[in-house]
Structures
1.
Amino acid sequence: MSQPTNQPCAGSVFRNPPGDFSGRLIEVSGLKGLTVGGASVSDKHANFIVNNGDATAKDIETLIFEVQQRVEQEHGVKLIPEVHIIGEPS
């Protein structure tokens, strides 16, 4: 299984862009393992953000934004989240 089933996460974070895969774009951008606070891009599947035990909503939102920015800078693709942020953005 290629998903991080041994760590808490909210599932797949980004929609796949037409003709490509979000996980592939994140991985080739060198972002596997990128960490903000207690949240990390999974080493197992790059389209999953995992909670290392003490992640806050702000950590996760910041990491989502960082991944979006870096993939767009490197590949010209704006990743669209498929997770929904409830409440006010951090």
2.
Amino acid sequence: MHRAVRPVFQRGRNMAASTAEPQILVQYLVLRKDLSQAPLAWPAGALIAQACHAATAALHIHRDHPHTGAYLAELERMRKVVLEAPDESTLKQLAETLQQKNIDHLLWLEQPENIATCLALRPYPKEEVSQYLKKFRLFK
């Protein structure tokens, strides 16, 4: 497996060395905080899995976007920020706002219950999306 990953790391370093400093891209995730609290009390592993599902799906769906390609080309520079939404309603409201503003994202729905658990944006420059996320704090 390391042989497959190593050329990607090398390619990313060569690209950075041959051009101006690349734009720093961030993938934002917004995870429901209430899932970790009573009465739901999901275990930490289940919450982490929801964030992983959402992040992977958003990267896959937006794999042809130049920002996603640049983000994945430099694996050692990947940045993710995990924020918390208080509940499902707030998460769905954020999804609606992002859709209205044409911000690429994915709302992960856990099946078979069809529960919205996590929202993931594709990689973006922080300054392009921070205004939509500033009311959310880091997930704790």
3.
Amino acid sequence: MEYLLAARFRGYYPVIIDIETSGLNSQTDAMLEIAAIMPAMDEQGYLYCAEKIHFHVLPFEGANLDPKALAFTGIDPFNPLRGAVDEREALTEIFKCVRKHQKNNGCNRSILVAHNAAFDQGFINQATQRCNLKRVPFHPFASFDTACMAGLTLGQTVLAKACEQAKIPYDNNEAHSALYDTEVTAELFFYMVNKWKALGGWPV
């Protein structure tokens, strides 16, 4: 069986992720929301969304909760209406979903895709260590950064401006929700990869 997606990124399965946090320091600050989008590839070699998964996350014990960061995101970490779960449950379920799609696409490892990816990767790595999780599907340090990709392909590195250049709708009122930002980042990633394919940059 031929796996087009596996051939596209050297056996890596790209997973688009966004995280909302209680600050900028992945060692001391909490992950408060996380969303992930699993892509698939059609017979012509174009990417599209196959599945979305999203969690509100409870701060880990002793986490720093920066009031400025909370005001920026508008998240009340302990609001019971959030239906938040602990970071172990959130990551366990996301990793399980990632491994399923990774296997279905014939890939041997997954790679994180995010806007300014080092930020999100740092929080995932720290939470993974805190929870002592095994069978982590992601490469520990390699990633696809859509900010860098957009700088190259669209001349813009800010997510909103890159989306404007690509004619992808972007609502500032919805921004800083992990699910919304993941959806927009996925659209941008798909646009850039698919555009490169359409221009003949990656023959099937």
